[in-house]
Design a protein that fits this description.
Helices cover 43% and strands 21% of the residues. The protein is an alpha+beta fold and 204 residues long. The protein has a single domain, classed as Beta Polymerase, domain 2 (2-Layer Sandwich).
């Protein structure tokens, strides 16, 4: 749970801009693959299905680098959660998850202030360290193509190795600038996703 800001001796909620800035400045730590990561996903999936209303979620997937066997990654489990309606998710899921300590952001899909927006949550452990990111999107969002990227890396270890080296370099160059780190990966992800789309017989 994020710590509140203090002003004039009173406790007030942290402003959204401050929360975003703080999240973007957190250190980027790339670590070797941990075989416990798939189990962390399974437990969080079960937890979400238990605490959120039936019918809101129609699909939950493990994606990102922690979902690729053997790949070094930030030790944060990325979860793609398909919801039937983002408006319903904001109305129902946000208060449930915030009450359990998840941090909530209404986040643009591309860059700064570029729609479509989706619901994004950070889950932390008792030390305040990130453990999970939950990306709630609707059925037609481009995020689902990230599963092609995940599967392609798992199928082609040499491509996964190059991606891992890129992430290591970017984490050294931008250790506390998550926006620059993400931007540095963009071209590689776009190229490999195009290869994956072709390989798996998908169409853009």
């Amino acid at each position: 749970m994020m710590a509140p800001m203090k002003r004039s001796g009173d406790t007030v909620p942290e402003r959204l801009e401050a929360r975003v800035a703080r999240a973007l400045r957190e250190e980027i730590d790339i670590v070797p693959y941990d075989p416990l990561w798939p189990g962390m996903f399974v437990r969080e999936k079960s937890h979400l299905l238990k605490i959120l209303p039936a019918g809101l979620l129609y699909r939950i997937e493990h994606f990102g680098s922690t979902a690729v066997p053997g790949m070094a990654a930030k030790p944060v489990i990325d979860i793609l959660a398909g919801v039937v309606s983002l408006e319903e998710a904001k109305r129902v899921a946000v208060p449930i998850l915030e009450s359990r300590g998840y941090e909530y952001f209404w986040r643009p899909s591309f860059g700064d202030h570029t729609p479509p927006y989706y619901a994004w949550f950070i889950k932390r452990d008792c030390r305040g360290i990130r453990t999970h990111h939950i990306h709630m999107v609707e059925r037609d969002f481009e995020h689902w193509e990230r599963l092609l990227f995940r599967d392609y890396l798992a199928a082609f270890p040499e491509v996964a190795r190059r991606y891992g080296e890129l992430k290591q370099r970017l984490s050294r160059e931008h250790p506390r600038d998550r926006a620059a780190y993400t931007e540095g990966k963009a071209d590689f992800i776009v190229r490999v996703t195009a290869l994956a789309r072709e390989y798996y017989g998908k169409r853009g």
